[in-house]
Protein 1
Amino acid sequence: MNIILLGAPGAGKGTQASRISDAYALPHISTGDIFRENIKNETEIGLLAKSYIDKGQLVPDEVTCKIVENRIVKPDCEKGYMLDGFPRTIAQAEALDKVAKIDLVINMDVDFALIMDRLCGRRVCKDCGESYHVTTLNGATTCSRCGGELYQRKDDNPETVESRLAVYSQQTAPLIEYYKAKGLLFNVLSNGTPEETFEMIAKKLDSFSK
Ligand code: ADP
Ligand code: ZN
């Protein structure tokens, strides 16, 4: 099963992705994670990506598409995979259609009013990528999943979040119609807790794999 997680920044894609990946044994492919890994290792792609990410803009389609095309042909993707944060433009979706057959697109719908607080209060595990929120951490500075150190992403500040939201509305939101027209869209409301959202997604995935 090949699935796409769609949604605005702060919709909870990454959080659900790690739960889905654990429960359904699907490799979790996050273009954002791949870019951050490249930035950390100071690769050529990382250097290029950083200039866009720090401004809340999208990394150019050619670069992003190539990364995904190379990733989904790896042996661990043979039985399926989950894309998180890709595609983010119509051009990326069209490129993906040429190399993959997508079975389901999960669109995570969240109130825009919740996003700023979610993202600016987010802390991420340096080692496994799990997301937390300062209000539930109670001062903890390490990951309860793997013990890794938590940090705040550089693009999780009010100014950059504003531009990420504008980019989402202009370039990514049209994908909802794109996949609806193909009959692949599953909408899930993501205003509640991660557990509530996961329950709805799991119900859908369970009915799907039978
Ligand atoms: P979020 O969904 O919280 O914004 P991501 O980790 O998915 O976070 O992405 C972080 C940044 O990485 C984006 O703001 C963008 O600059 C870049 N990026 C990630 N995925 C893509 C993509 N498919 N196309 C272009 N840029 C991307
Ligand atoms: Zn961790």
Protein 2
Amino acid sequence: MAVTVKTKREIELMRESNHRLEKVFDALEKMIRPGISTWEIDQAARRLIKEQGGVPNFLNYDGFPGAVCTSVNEEVVHGIPKRDRILKEGDIISLDCGLILNGYHSDAARTYPVGEIAESEKKLIEVTKASFFEGIKYARAGHHLHEIGNAIGDYCESRGYGVVRDLVGHGIGREMHEDPQIPNYRMKSRGLRLVAGMTLAIEPMICEGTWEVDWMDDNWTVVTKDRKPAAHYENTILITDGEPEILSRTHD
Ligand code: MG
Ligand code: MG
């Protein structure tokens, strides 16, 4: 699929879809506590997306059984919500969620602490988020795509973290996954030239240990090979001639 450049009208629709998703995340964040199951979080995500007038884009995507991916501790991404997966004090949980509104997709992810967590995991979450902001310094018209991933990868690796290579960010619009693919690690090539009007989902997946991952037997859940924790931070952004607009986040 070709890389799409959105019209003014499409950008407005992308903005609205992502703003509604932001509200879903605000409500989900408040639910995170010891004792709640990932199934309850998914039930809430389904309800909240509906209340926002949207349709979950993850639900039934290639058969995925939830509206939100719930990945705990060593689970990097694509964790399946389950009734018997109960969060406990000291866990970290990554929520990856999106919706479709008026035919346009939104996509974002956050890693949250469950109660009090270890210093090392606080640091992991901080570095993952900070790497996103390092990356998007280069997300503007005239720069090249791989400058984003080079900055993300260098930021994390120089601090001793592993950067997942098997999964990448992506273009987004009328489809959840459009071209281009957006690696989070240093590439030899420059990648395509960025143009105002591109909408991209930038999503570093960062590991406390090795970058290598395994797929669990459910064929969805991606876990770190060394079973050390991982974090995820994603926003849908709009490329402009100046600073990128973060469509899925208007506040901290
Ligand atoms: Mg996502
Ligand atoms: Mg994504």
